Amino acid sequence: MSVLFTSISEGNPVKPGDAESLLAPLGLTVDPAEAKDFHTLLAAVHDCAETVAALPDYQPIPDQIRYPRENVRRPSKEEQALGQAWVHRFLIRGNAAGPLARKSVSLKDVIAVAGVPQLLGSDIIPSWTPVTDATVVTRLLEAGADIHGTSTCENYCHSTSSYTSAQGVVENPHAEGYSAGGSTSGGAALVAAGLVDITIGGDQGGSIRVPAALCGCVGLKATYGRVPFTGITSGDALNDHVGPLTRTTLDAATCLDVMSGYDGIDDKSICSPKPGSTRFAATLQQNSARLDGVKIGTLTEGFNHSAIDPAVRATVMTAAKKFQDLGANVEEVSLPDHLHGPAIWTIQQRISGTQTLLGQSAGRRELYMTEQQQASLPWTDEGFQRAFPSTKNVIINGLYLSSRFPGLYGKTVNIGRQLRDKYEVLFEKFDVIVMPTTPVVAPKHGKRGLPLESVKPSMGLTINTAIFDVTGHPAISIPVGYAPAREDGDVLLPVGMQIVGGLWQEEKILRAGHAWETHFDWKKTQ
Predict the structure, then answer these.
(1) Percent of the chain residues past pLDDT 70, beyond the cut
(2) What pLDDT does residue 9 have?
(3) Residue 36 catalytic?
């Protein structure tokens, strides 16, 4: 036994009966003959906890001498854009030279920047201020990017709409009153409107690709683990992805070169190639933009789902067939288990997401955001009542599933691996597969009301995206045209095509996306 209990500290708060009280909600009891010993052991572990709690935390120290944070502030009305797209404005100047030199960047407000308060799209708790920079922030600065601020994310990242943030509504740059998507809502809008070159977002169900599709920009989610998630507030470590939203595939490829590679902290990225060793951008620039001999599959289940709007389906199919003009072979392919993706993702995310929200996530070697946990825990009923209904629903669902379906989380992990393997078999025949990123174009903003009313605008938007967070496959959304809004046929909004590749095969999806956008103007394609 590693816990020493021969002497218990004076003033130890553990009282007789505490062990019994802890077990009671589980319907478990302590044998009276063993009660005294378990009291002693519990008191001893409390002393261990006090010892560890008193130790200083161990977090990476950012270089604020080379990269000072200039004029951190909440944006004024005049500085704000597209409703409430910005959360904090500041400037961190990157290196004078590098592949991203002078590119302007915004960061989703879940990405740690030392000295910049983080709100997480919520008002459940006061903002908390990181003491470190996320790995991707350090790498962007080293590559020459200038970071201009943090951009709005949806409430606790639990929505693919853009009206749930406690900081305000984010407007679609193509039509006011319509969603910019989420949860990387503010950043997608800023990129699509030309106000920044790049946004770095997070994707755990589609939160990069969905807003990219709805706003008309490029959104890239690389293979699970290629880019370290260090210093980013997590929802579910099993689905955590971070990546760029840009206006071109080449910029997305450059960001991937800069950000990828194991950082010695995040165990999810331990198999990623050495930082700085990839040449995705150079390969795009050096190779022909044709696709002779490339095999592209149009995924039947991704196109023919009942939720897909016919105009979106037609726009993406037309775009997919244009690959033939570039020399590619395009044919239909079916994988029925694709339709299981939303259910598998939902169970996985609800259970693991609840554990994270309650401060119970464990089992990974990564940087734990202890300041955020200290600010947000424990939950209070007052905070819970302020939570957006989608966050309340995650907690209610997660607690229910954990209590009524023991072992179900593990089964979803196993089935998720099965889905991954089935896709890998498919990618032995096809270089990439394509489908609509979202089933519809941007819907009108919803409003906060009763739970069903509040979450309805987000329902179904991730039917083609969430599964690839489960399987970990790389996926990119590129804009390929317009389709009419459901609410008003005179309003035309962007349509995104999702291109998916085999594990660690980012060069294939980047090549396909780059070739399409090089030869076709999505704003003129009908």
Answers:
(1) 98
(2) 79
(3) no
